């Protein structure tokens, strides 16, 4: 019996299973999916600058943005923040649990965060496939507690964090 997972797009050996999409993907299609998602986020918000400053909020996110927008870095232009799905989900959940206003926004006058629906797990897997070691960021105890709760939800309902972030967008929290 063949137990090797196959990419749903091309049939090659799968290296990543997207729980949210419920798809096995090969390296090539996993990388394309992530990069396409980031660029699609930018198109959705009509961000068309050719040059971007890169923020350094989340090391994991910043490294990914450097890869996606290599050669487009500049001292001028819109700043691309590097918060990830987890950062935004923590912010929205903290708003509901602790009535804390969010200090994270997807879009501002001079800033945009194209990683609001890209998880650290995806980014770390992306770099692992490129044989580049990258660790998750360190969070304070309160954030870790909220994130643990969110990961439990995500395990039971894949896409739960994305749904929470979308609710935060619709309610103007982030």
Strand-and-helix sequence, N→C? EEHEHEHEHHH
Strand content: 5-15%
Portion of residues within helices = 40-55%
The stretches of 5 or more residues where confidence is low (pLDDT under 50) are none
| The CATH superfamily title of the domain at 50-170 | HUPs
Write out the strand line-up for the largest beta sheet, numbering strands in chain order: 3-4-5
Largest sheet: 3 strands, parallel
Q: Write the CATH fold name of the domain at 50-170.
A: Rossmann fold
Count of DSSP E strands?
Answer: 5
Top-tier CATH class of the domain at 50-170? Alpha Beta
Architecture per CATH nomenclature, i.e. the level-2 architecture of the domain at 50-170:
3-Layer(aba) Sandwich
Distance between the termini: 48 Å
Based on CA inertia axes, which overall geometry fits?
Answer: globular
Question: Can you describe what's shown?
Answer:
It is a single chain. By secondary structure, the protein is mostly helical. It has a domain at 50-170: 3-Layer(aba) Sandwich (Rossmann fold), CATH 3.40.50.620. It has 6 helices and 5 strands, in the order ββαβαβαβααα. The strands form 2 sheets. A 3-stranded parallel sheet has the order 3-4-5, covered by helices on one side. The radius of gyration is 17 Å and the shape is globular. The N and C termini lie far apart (48 Å).
List keywords for this structure.
3-stranded parallel β-sheet; about 170 residues; mainly alpha; two-stranded antiparallel sheet; 6 helices; Rossmann fold
Describe how the helices and strands are arranged:
Layout: E1 16-18, E2 23-25, H1 27-44, E3 52-54, H2 59-68, E4 78-80, H3 85-98, E5 111-112, H4 120-129, H5 141-156, H6 160-170
Parallel strand pairs: 3-4, 4-5
Antiparallel strand pairs: 1-2
